[in-house]
Amino acid sequence: MKKIRKAVFPVGGLGTRFLPATKTLAKEMLPVVDKPLVQYAFEEARDAGIEQFIFIMGRNKNAISNHFDNAYELQTILGEKNKRQELEQTIGWLPEAGNLIFTRQQQPLGLGHAVWCARHLIGDEPFAVLLADDMVLAPQKPCLKQMVEAYAGLKGDGNLVAVQNVSREHTSRYGILATKDEKPQLVSAYDMVEKPKPDNAPSTLAVIGRYILQPDIFDYLDKHEKGAGGEIQLTDAIRAMLPGSPLFGFRFDGIRYDCGSKEGFLEANIAYALERPDLRDAMQDILRKYALAQAA
Fold first, then answer.
1. Does 155 score more than 80 pLDDT?
2. What is the torsional sign of CA 275, 281, 87, 64?
């Protein structure tokens, strides 16, 4: 079984739900507490053993590539002022040179198209996909690391997607699995439907933004077939691989925050602040203050 060495980060979206902030700022650079979304996703992949990080960019996304580079003027000033903690926060987490790849998705044609743009960089290896605006708070073990370990148990057979149960009225927001065999964490699926109406949803088990995929998926993405929303859907390609390539859903340990929505983004900031020893007490005081004000 081949090791999962490569991860794809589709970061070419327009971020229209966060306008006007995203008029010039990439959505993936929005900060949760003091770290941009894309850095959380990168660190999760790194901690799962990923060695090569492939970012699928769009126009006006240069802030992302700049974030993963040295900022010499800032670093010089921090060094001169002996601000070691701030300097570590600036460059201490950067990967080795040559481990980052940035390529351009000229048109936002859907998640499937974004992943397809990485085809020549992936080659014939299984690989991970992480959506930066899907954050998973998992203090014990990062979500992707959990998935890599579960994938090893499958002996490299099939595709693995992270899943969670959602309310039935929200099934139209997700890819939904139709399951045939369920264990506490690992679910075997015979079908997956992209954004079904609640009455037509085969279950309430929704796919979130973490995938481990076989390279054969590019054979299906090559067809550029459009699905829901007139976009090239990754879900459709995974579905087309059935039954030849099995599909498994993985129930991860952790709490997922949809930072593609304003509500989810705000909740993530609160949750991640409460996880920080340096911010927990202050955040609890703030929450109490506003709770009391609302109750008055």
1. no
2. positive
